[in-house]
Design a protein that fits this description.
Elements lengths: L2 E5 L2 E2 L6 E8 L7 E7 L6 E6 L6 E3 L7 E6 L4 E6 L8 E8 L16 E2 L3 E4 L3
Parallel strand pairs: 2-11
Antiparallel strand pairs: 1-3, 3-8, 4-5, 4-9, 5-6, 7-8, 9-10, 9-11
C-alpha cells in the first residue's frame, strides 16, 4: 500500500506560479513510476507529467512543456510539480499517482493503469 497526499494548490492569477507536492508513505517512490494528473470540470482525467522509477526520465504532455517541471526528492519521498506561467486552462484538480513496474512506455502513466492515487489538490487560474 502507498498513501499519497497532495498539497500546494490554490488560486493564482494567470502568469503566476505554484508548486505542488505529493508526499508518499508506506513504500518508497523509487519503486514506482510517479505521475501528475489533472481533471478539469467536465473533462476526463489526463496525465500532465511523469517520472521514471530511476528518476532519469521525465515525460510532459505537450500543453505544459516548457512551463511545468516535475522532480522527486528521494530523501523526502516526495514528488513536486513546479508550475510556471499558469494559464486559465490549467485550472483543474491535480492528482499524483504511482504505477509499479513492469510497464512499458506510456502505459506506465496511463490513467487506467495507475495503482494508487492521492485525493488531489485544486488549482484555479481565473480568466
Amino acid at each position: 500500500q502507498v498513501q499519497l497526499v497532495e498539497s500546494g494548490g490554490g488560486l493564482v492569477q494567470a502568469g503566476g506560479s505554484l508548486r505542488l507536492s505529493c508526499a508518499a508513505s508506506g513504500r518508497t517512490l523509487t519503486n514506482y513510476v510517479t505521475g501528475w494528473f489533472r481533471q478539469a470540470p467536465g473533462k476526463e482525467r489526463e496525465v500532465v507529467a511523469a517520472i521514471s522509477v530511476s528518476g532519469g526520465f521525465t515525460y510532459y504532455t505537450d500543453s505544459v512543456k516548457g512551463r511545468f517541471t516535475m522532480s522527486r526528492d528521494n530523501a523526502k519521498n516526495t514528488v513536486f510539480l513546479q508550475m510556471n506561467r499558469l494559464k486559465p486552462e490549467d485550472t483543474a484538480d491535480y492528482f499524483c499517482a504511482v504505477k509499479a513496474p513492469p510497464c512499458s512506455g506510456s502505459m506506465c502513466f496511463d490513467v487506467n493503469a495507475m495503482d494508487y492515487w492521492g485525493k488531489g489538490t485544486l488549482v484555479t487560474v481565473p480568466s
